[in-house]
Amino acid sequence: MMVTTSSKTDLAREALAAARRVRIRAGASAEAPISIFDLVEEHYRDEIELRFKAAPSLEGLYVRGEPSAGTTSIIIVSALRPAGRQRTTCAHELGHHVFGHGSSIDEVVEDGTSRRFEPNEHVANAFAAFLTMPKLGILKAFTDRDTRPELASPTTVYAVASQFGVGFTTLVNHLWLTLGAMSADRAAQLLKVAPKRMREELLGAAVPGELVLFDQHWRGRAIDLAVGDHVIVPPGAAVEADTLKFVSKRSGGDAHVAVRVGRGRVVDGDSGNAAYVRVSRAQYEGRALFRHLEESDDE
Amino acid sequence: MDPDKKQLQIASRIRTARENAGLSQGQAAKLLGVARPTITECEAGRRKVTAVELTAMAKTYGVGVAWLAGEVGDAASPDEDRIELAAREIAGLKDDDLANVLQLVRSIRAKGKR
């Protein structure tokens, strides 16, 4: 198939409009960070069953249901991928659903590129990006931190990626290639920074799992962690959660590790900022609905 | 099918569905409003499951009642055929992974509206 720039532009425009419609359906503003799993669970619960499954070579799967035949649509997201990647995959599969695409399966591709241009995959990717990283919200997140994408430090970019629940690399590529808010040179510099190395520097140790940076500008989304993941909160912020355990004081704030499944809250007295904390099992497999369900007392 | 074999098949599917839903036996018991030993006995095939219980389990575990009751076989549906066809174009996808997700899809697809 001959793919023209204009056809790609048309697909991007369709994806943007669809992402806006989904946000309206979910009651989310044009700029708010969203939890894509909550969005699917709460606003597509009669249409889609969302699951996590450990299948090493699988990224995600969408199975189209036929309501007239009494079958439900299904999204399966790999339980073994990084959290940001899982959210992007879920949004991508939701894209297939809202565009009425047929069932599709996505394998793990490390460099994130497809072998050939597939319009359905392209529009689902664009939809996922616009839904999880809305332009207004992303640019506001940098303004709130007294900077802009071109000048922001790697740590600030990481904090914004944390707030929107996407990967560092995914955000840099979006700022550069889609939003045009970052130069190619700056993007190249940032893409040389390994997120793993950044986590090591921020935590002062090499630890497995994710690191979320909850700063005073974080708004609009719960802090979602899996057991073993870390979060850095502003110095002295109150952690009202037995799901988290204090680890150490770092230059950026207090580091905590998620130690058990459940819910809690973090309150930063200085800025008045607060967010819920939700912890799931590491590499959780199951219904999205139950991912933060605490163990029963008699386990 | 022999009634005992049928009961064991249902027991096996109940256990698979609970595990696939991400629930421990204790969590499932709490959500279903039954004692934990009830779940254990049902999953071991030592206790018959009533139609009401089967319906409640299907709803909580997010699967079709017909699948849980063993009325849906392991034959591929047209949906699965399409997925398998798509999967053939994907070089990196492992057979085991495909089999596992298709088994999960089979259990869920006829669950209908919650």
What features would you describe in this structure?
The complex is a heterodimer of chains A (299) and B (114). With 299 residues, chain A is of the alpha+beta class. Chain A has helices spanning 5-25, 36-43, 83-98, 119-132, 135-144, 154-164, 168-178, 184-191, 195-203; strands at 48-53, 58-63, 73-78, 104-107, 211-213, 223-226, 230-233, 238-240, 244-250, 253-258, 262-268, 273-280, 286-287. Chain A folds into 3 domains: 5-109 and 118-132, Arc Repressor Mutant, subunit A (Orthogonal Bundle); 133-193, no CATH class; 196-286, Immunoglobulin-like, CATH 2.60.40. Chain A has 9 helices and 13 strands. In chain A, the strands form 3 sheets. Chain A has a 5-stranded mixed beta sheet, with helices on one face. Chain A has a 4-stranded mixed beta sheet with strand order 5-7-10-9. In chain A, helix 1 packs across helix 4 (119-132), helix 3 packs across helix 4 and helix 6 packs across helix 7 (168-178). The longest helix of chain A has 21 residues, at 5-25. The radius of gyration of chain A is 19 Å and the shape is globular. The model of chain A has no long low-confidence stretch (mean pLDDT 91). Chain B is an all-alpha fold and 114 residues long. Chain B has a single domain, classed as lambda repressor-like DNA-binding domains (434 Repressor (Amino-terminal Domain)), CATH 1.10.260.40. Chain B is built from 7 helices and no strands. At the A-B interface, strand 1, strand 2, strand 4 and strand 13 of A face helix 2, helix 6 and helix 7 of B.
